[in-house]
Design a protein that fits this description.
By secondary structure, the protein is an alpha/beta fold. The chain has one domain: NAD(P)-binding Rossmann-like Domain (Rossmann fold, 3-Layer(aba) Sandwich), CATH 3.40.50. The chain contains seven helices and seven strands, in the order βαβαβαβαβαβααβ. A seven-stranded parallel beta sheet has the order 3-2-1-4-5-6-7, with helices on both faces. Helix 3 runs parallel beside helix 4 and helix 4 runs parallel beside helix 5. It is globular and about 45 Å long. The two termini are 29 Å apart. 42% of the residues are buried. One of its GO terms (molecular function) is oxidoreductase activity.
Length: 242
């Protein structure tokens, strides 16, 4: 699969899975607009990608807890393109601890704001660019924590709340945007292995039935869903937890 004709926005791409997505989509020919909470983190990944020979990559700062920062991110991307084809909502602060009292009020607010409010406002601000595309997709990295009855994570209750909010938002968004041709795709992975995509470990990480889910498999799910004909709306990927 090649994505030479795709323009892709990725939030929280300064590290971890967002960085993995940015590198692989650029390798497949996509023009990538990546953000991180700090501009330096985004520029670092941009430079890594350009070092691989891909020049169509742009770096931006975006704090998903700050509405003005999200608006500025969308406005800056609008200055560089008249449309985007894929918006990947990857950003959401993880907060660990199965003890409600363990987190400060500020940590709770930041966690829910980045995952819930940040996702809603990112889609809201990028929707005009998506509607200018003939193949618009919204992809959201939710979590198994966003599924009803899930309890196997050590994440804090605030993280569960943020992920449940993303689930509800994606559900109604899919119904309301389908008449406009926008597909809404959500992924609900449990904890997964995310080796550095530029390391040898990327190729050697085991992917047998007994192993944990890998970032490689998640990337392939996203690529598969986005590459389908426009009559194929894959709403969600749910994964068995080892």
């Amino acid at each position: 699969m090649r994505f030479d004709s795709h323009r892709v926005v990725i939030t929280a791409a300064g590290r971890d899975f967002g960085r993995t997505l940015a590198i692989h989509l650029a390798d497949l020919g996509a023009e990538v607009f990546l953000s991180a909470r700090t501009l330096a983190a985004a520029e670092h990944v941009r430079d890594e990608i350009r070092g691989r020979g891909h020049q169509q990559v742009h770096a931006f700062a975006c704090d998903l807890t700050d509405p003005a920062s999200i608006r500025d991110f969308a406005a800056d991307v609008t200055q560089r393109t008249d449309h985007i084809d894929v918006l990947i909502n990857n950003g959401s602060r993880y907060l660990e601890s199965p003890d409600l009292q363990s987190a400060s009020d500020a940590d709770v607010i930041d966690t829910i704001a980045s995952g819930a409010t940040g996702t809603v406002l990112t889609v809201k601000n990028f929707l005009p660019l998506l509607l200018n595309s003939d193949k618009p997709d919204v992809v959201t990295m939710v979590s198994a924590c966003g599924t009803a009855g899930h309890h196997r994570s050590d994440a804090h209750e605030a993280f569960y709340a943020a992920k449940s909010a993303q689930t509800g938002f994606a559900e109604i968004l899919s119904k309301r945007l389908r008449p406009q041709g926008v597909r809404v795709i959500s992924l609900y992975p449990p904890d997964f292995d995310n080796p550095d995509p530029l390391s040898e470990e990327w190729e050697t990480t085991p992917r047998e039935a007994k192993n944990a889910l890998t970032a490689q498999s998640l990337v392939e799910c996203i690529l598969f869903a986005v590459a389908q004909p426009r009559d194929c709306f894959i709403k969600a990927f749910h994964f068995e937890q080892v």
